[in-house]
Amino acid sequence: MDAVTLQTASAECCSCAADDIQQGREDRPTRDEAMAAVRTLLAWAGDNPDREGLLDTPKRVVDAYGEWFAGYEGDPAHELSRTFEDVQGYDDMVMLRGIDVQSHCEHHMAPFLGKAWIAYMPTGKVVGLSKLARLVEIFAKRLQTQETMTMQIADAIEDHLSAAGVAVLIDAEHQCMSTRGVRHHDVSTITTQFRGVFRTDKVLQQRFMDLVVRK
User: What is the residue-averaged pLDDT of the chain?
Assistant: First the structure.
């Protein structure tokens, strides 16, 4: 599969995902319905939702979900819309190292926690560094797979900054694997995406990887 086909498939996938998220917003239950669902889960787990220690649990869970999944309200295009062209001719990579990743697996709704390293090769304009960290947060604070999130971050930077190249690496530990099922601890998952010059220029790609592991 060539680069054009990959890029087209990625764009189509992201478009379908965006449509699904929009449909989810339109069908969103009320807060009271969400709290009632938590009470049902508490009872299903074998406890009594009416005992003192659990009376406020539905409210707390819904509030926590509001934080954990705030990324559905975020807009990557908006975050990357303000750029700066006065960079005195700077034409090398811009890289952020060790961005916190706190997300939830879409299969079990269990957390996966780790770090992200992202870089792009600007073409005459750059974006504020905090916006790149915020971009990671927007995609992380959704129900995710690590593979999809890695692609989405790369797509957003490539599309909205017209970057000559993008590199993304995420290293995370999935609690759906460490606390249930096979229960293997200290196993990390690494996903990468290289676009543009980071894919074609192996020396540049190696520079990125060297900076990832640098202490």
Answer: 90
